[in-house]
Amino acid sequence: MTMNRRNLLAGAGAAAASTLLARAAGAQSFPFVPNQRYPDPAVQILDPSFAKYRIYSSTVEQVATGMRWAEGPAYFPEGGYLLFSDIPNNRIMKFDEKTGQTSVFRANANYANGNARDRQGRLVSCEHSVTRRVTRTEKDGKITVLADKFDGKRLNAPNDIVVKSDDTIWFTDPLFGINGEWEGKKEKPEQATTNVYRLTKDGKLTAVITDIVNPNGLAFSPDEKKLYVVEWKGTPNRSIWSFDVNADGTLGGKTKLIDAADQGALDGFRVDRDGNLWCGWGSNGALQPEPTEVGGRRVFQLKGKPEDLDGVMVFSPAGKPLAHIRLPERCANLTFGGPKNNRLYMTSCHSVYALYVESHGAV
């Protein structure tokens, strides 16, 4: 092809568009710069027992950016990729470990929030607005509806999801996806309570928890004898409750395991093979009771500084704080991935961060 001014401009325009698309999808260059010093000071050890989980020469990396609210990470080892939700943009994203590129996996995703990989390697998702259902994406791409009603009434806004070793699917159903127009469509709830559900292989849906106000993240202990559930509101602080799991799938023995205090925000979390809880953390947006003088104005400021809270908190199985992984954005959710299941992926506001650790996700 003969190069002329028109071709040159067209080529430059195409290159610019490609770069913008890559950046919008969360690929290529970022403003974030990994810390150059080992060990990474972003990993703060709060208890000496955590030292064995820190890799001395590993640092926090930003692997994707350009989202509006990143959530629901799920890792697929067969393909070496991470799927996660960008809720306000109504899409599920895909980060490919081999290429380092991020692309749109599914547009018009019904404001999907939580995602998980089932035991057969299929994607299960919480569509937490518009459709308000739990779906499974088959290997051929077909979408199967697993649950959209309970007792003949529509679900609230399915939020987070986990698949147990017996192939039962457990998910939370708070109100966030129908509370406003930012993360979906504002609608009136039909359920009287905000529940945690258990879905069996034959399609039977049971409300196993009905007395938690807006349940959020959930996960099982490695032996699956405990179910942990975040209560977003009502205790009065955000908390993680521990439940005994009975052989028939019912729950008992409710105990408060972790209290986030009046300024911390618990959201999604995962459990490692040793039973430690790796929890998304940040400011809960609560305001100080009295305003302070800022630039000539009386401003109601946040309780606690987000820059001191944002990241991941790690707790022992007994609820003891072990570490804080500091991030420049609030972490909403996380998962373990990578070929060795030792790479922590953290979905955090606009970005996804990753950190190799000497720990492995419980599966």
UniProtKB/TrEMBL annotation:
Domain SMP-30/Gluconolactonase/LRE-like region: 69-350
Species assigned in the record: Bradyrhizobium valentinum
Top-rank taxon: Bacteria
Transmembrane residue ranges: none
Entry binding sites for a divalent metal cation: E71, N216, D267
Keyword Signal appears in the UniProt entry: yes
PANTHER family assigned: LACTONASE DRP35 (PTHR47572:SF4), LIPOPROTEIN-RELATED (PTHR47572)
Entry keyword set: Hydrolase, Metal-binding, Signal, Zinc
Keyword Cell cycle: no
UniProt-listed Pfam families: SGL
SUPFAM superfamilies: Calcium-dependent phosphotriesterase
Gene3D superfamilies, per database record: TolB, C-terminal domain (2.120.10.30)
Matches recorded under InterPro entries: 6-blade_b-propeller_TolB-like, SGL, SMP-30, SMP-30/CGR1_Lactonase, TAT_signal
Note describing how the cofactor binds: Binds 1 divalent metal cation per subunit.
Molecular function terms, GO-annotated: hydrolase activity; metal ion binding
Name of the protein this chain belongs to: Gluconolactonase
Active site positions, chain numbering: D267
Binding residue positions for substrate: N159, E183
Cofactors: Zn(2+)
Signal sequence annotation: 1-27
